[in-house]
Amino acid sequence: MTTTTLQDQLDEITTNTRHLVQQERLAVGERAVADLFDSGIEDRILPVGAIAPEFELKDTAGRLVRSADLLALGPLVVKFFRGRWCPYCVTELEAWRDLYGTLREHEGLMVAIGPQTARQSDFMAGQHGLPFPVLADPSNLVAEQFGLVYTVPEYHRTYYQSILVNIPFVNGEPSWRLPIPATYVIAKDRKILFAEAHADFRVRPEPEEALAVAIHPHHR
Prior knowledge:
By secondary structure, the protein is of the alpha/beta class.
């Protein structure tokens, strides 16, 4: 039996996109990824060993979810995503959906955090059957504390608009700020055990790697 990794699935999205999108439009996205990488954002993310900031954010039903309450119960996986418009983010969240039962069996919890409005997250959670809370992070204020936030450059906004991705509408605010997708595992004492984020949105850590850290936090 061959197991398909998450990255295999993401690479397939990339291949399909390359068949569908004109070369000059693809080049705009490549430039944006290169510029973001050159900004050094990956080197500034909150690293393993740091203490995670506390947060309280609303879920899709408008209930306040506090990190302190979750960490009282067990280790916490935090998945920062860009939006329901991003097929890579949605595919990654589905991979976590399929592992969530294993995480819960080992006392672990999980939240997904994104800048989109609660209404958008509600659509997404329903459409993709996400069993964990999806939390709204208005203006990316929590993502910013993890060092993940950037502003989509002017030249890239036109591309998004051309593919009908209206980020200010989805996020309910006009800034065009997004998080780079990131995966964190936070221990009960708020220490960060796993931290991975990429300027290239097409690259994601395998969920199993983070899951292993969450399930066996003492083996590190």
